[in-house]
Write a structure and sequence with these properties.
- This protein is of the alpha/beta class and 460 residues long.
- The protein is built from 17 helices and 16 strands.
- Helix 9 packs across helix 16.
């Protein structure tokens, strides 16, 4: 079925400021990932939004807008893992303590992949860092109280809430009133004459500064790299996310800067002054705290397309709360609704990190639309969305008690594609999920380690 996907695509296009796709968008029929939620529809629609935004950018120089085709099965598969190692294995994405625990009055998820988040959870619980000890301690807490304690200690956690409870929660109410995308015009560009867009590489010659981590932001910048942008990812010293780095660093150069130091901040501003797009996923107040707020960024780079996300939305009491896809699923009623539908005795997550991936493709569409706007009228722009708002869209699409079909194969093999010589060994990618006529997604750099490159732009 593509009806829900088409309706979701229309929502994405309206959020981007487009009343229609501006080009022909074909949604190829296929299977569905096994879920009571319309996960494959969300995958196809969000990928299509990025494709439509790319097509509109290509058409700005007077040519016909290229057609867009989105394969439903491939879109679903890219919401999982696109990389297929040959002779080596991916690291598991989860820390040993991460997961769902039974509390005294319900369920709570602890997100402990980052060492400081793990340390916060263990410190609050006051037990050794093994799963059995953690489970025993969690069982003595009320879920909401433990959630607040872990978050207050600098960790990441979410109690299981029903959809009705989230609707009644102050943060759920705040998110429900937010637009899918917040859009603002910023400073006019001070750049020179604009070169023509290369239809085959629409983002060729453009620079994207990437301040994102797991997972939505890196998905967005991977898409931008696939259409020709030079993407430079910046991470702090010591940061790693081994479970997803081979998946999301495709097409990028990765460097390290400590933005809390004067030298790191100054170097970042130097990079920003010649960037076209900035994508960041810090909490809402984090860059302001570093003296890098929205006005500072717009002044440093007139005409900047500034694209950002957070976990729980841009208004409400949780506006600065740290969070991840799996936590938002717990908070927003997704895990509880799927648990009820399945008759399960514990939370049931989506089959993939769908909120992250869908938000990533929407962020890429925001960047592409912002670049088109700048090309048309010379102004920069600011775009913001959140995982919680994406969850709202998915929940509002309704559920199917049948749980979808039998499920597509989430890992279709590809043996005829080009060999990708990653930093870990040879690999192949499954075919791209979207085809924009004349502008195929392809990446000139293989996936590599974080921090492997200097914090500099390559010459144009």
């Amino acid at each position: 079925m593509t009806g829900p996907a088409r309706a979701m695509l229309d929502q994405f296009l309206r959020a981007l400021g487009a009343s229609g796709p501006g080009t022909s968008v074909e949604l190829v029929r296929g299977g569905s990932l096994p879920s009571v939620f319309a996960v494959s529809d969300l995958a196809q629609a969000s990928v299509a939004a990025a494709g439509a935004a790319c097509a509109r950018l290509v058409a700005l120089d007077g040519g016909a807008a290229p057609g867009v085709v989105v394969d439903r099965d491939l879109a679903s598969a890219w919401f999982g893992f696109s990389i297929r190692p040959e002779g080596w294995e991916l690291v598991g994405p989860w820390d040993a303590l991460a997961g769902d625990y039974a509390a005294a009055d319900g369920w709570i998820k602890l997100h402990t992949n980052a060492p400081h988040h793990r340390a916060a959870a263990v410190a609050v619980l006051g037990v050794p860092g093994d799963r059995q000890s953690v489970a025993g301690a969690v069982a003595t807490w009320d879920a909401d109280e433990l959630e607040d304690a872990v978050v207050g200690a600098g960790g990441a956690a979410a109690g299981l809430r029903s959809a009705a409870a989230w609707d009644a929660h102050p943060q759920g109410r705040a998110v429900s009133t937010e637009p899918l995308v917040h859009r603002d015009t910023s400073s006019p560009t001070s750049g020179g004459p604009r070169s023509l867009i290369r239809p085959d590489r629409p983002l060729g010659g453009l620079r994207v500064l990437d301040l994102t981590r797991v997972l939505a932001g890196p998905v967005a910048t991977r898409v931008l790299a696939g259409w020709g942008a030079q993407v430079l990812r910046i991470d702090p010293p010591g940061w790693d996310e081994p479970g997803v780095v081979p998946e999301v660093t495709l097409g990028k150069r990765c460097a390290r800067l400590d933005l809390t130091t004067p030298g790191g901040r100054d170097r970042f501003l130097e990079l920003l002054r010649s960037a076209d797009v900035l994508v960041h996923g810090y909490r809402a107040d984090a860059l302001d705290g570093l003296g890098l707020g929205a006005d500072m960024r717009a002044d440093a780079r007139p005409g900047l397309v500034d694209v950002s996300l957070d976990a729980y939305g841009w208004t409400g009491p949780w506006v600065t709360r740290r969070g991840f896809d799996s936590l938002v699923q717990m908070s927003s009623g997704i895990a509880a609704s799927a648990m009820t539908a399945a008759g399960a005795d514990r939370p049931v997550p989506l089959p993939v990190q769908a909120l992250d991936h869908a938000t990533g493709y929407l962020l890429a569409a925001c960047a592409l639309t912002g670049l088109a706007q700048r090309r048309a009228d010379g102004t920069g722009s600011r775009w913001r969305t959140s995982l919680a708002r994406m969850a709202r869209l998915l929940v509002d699409a309704g559920t199917d008690a049948a749980g979808g079909g039998p499920g597509i194969d989430p890992a279709p093999p590809r043996t005829d594609g080009p060999l990708e010589r990653t930093a870990w060994g040879d690999a192949r990618r499954i075919p791209p999920p979207v085809q924009v006529d004349g502008a195929p997604l392809h990446w000139s750099l293989p996936a590599g380690h974080l921090g492997a490159s200097p914090a500099t732009w390559l010459p144009d």
